[in-house]
């Protein structure tokens, strides 16, 4: 190929032009909760309360109640369980607290992943959370384990039930960006679900898929794997 005299070679950007969004290195790491920072809800006690042939129905009743609760402002755990109990044909005044206590006990942090979060902060990255969750579960987990010491900027923590919309709906990313004052290209989003990762990318963020362990507690992705995926997006924590 022959270039005309005085012209720039093809695909060479002028040095004084603005970088494109794909060239901006993210400065904010935004994590999902369930599957990334902590386990998904442990529904085993709930399911064991039903005969084997009814457990699929019980699972569906729980999931429907959770999906409604995670987009309901001010939703409380008892509201979620009453919906699930009603859908499963059980009295609303059943001992919902025992099911709720079992679920909340299961929300232990993935300490190794939180170590990576801390390492990112020490290297100057800001960190946040976008979680599809019920505030009545998320807030006690966040407070019980002192996560405010890691996620120190409230504007970078968004729970779906506060804004009445859940991932992968693009409106939740709009809400996060409005609340935080960030631009999409500044953010690198980490989630365990492909649909949520793809939604973040369509919204202009960089994103990686990562799941620390399976629903039955078996290892899936190591923190080293996550570090490598972040590095591929320009975020080095080495």
UniProtKB/TrEMBL annotation:
Signal sequence coordinates: none
Protein species of origin: Noctiluca scintillans
Residue ranges of the region described as Disordered: 1-20
Domain of life: Eukaryota
InterPro entries, sorted: HAD-like_sf, HAD-SF_hydro_IA, HAD_sf
Protein name in the entry: Uncharacterized protein
Pfam family, one: Hydrolase
PANTHER family, per the entry: ALPHA-D-GLUCOSE 1-PHOSPHATE PHOSPHATASE, FLAVIN MONONUCLEOTIDE HYDROLASE 1, CHLOROPLATIC
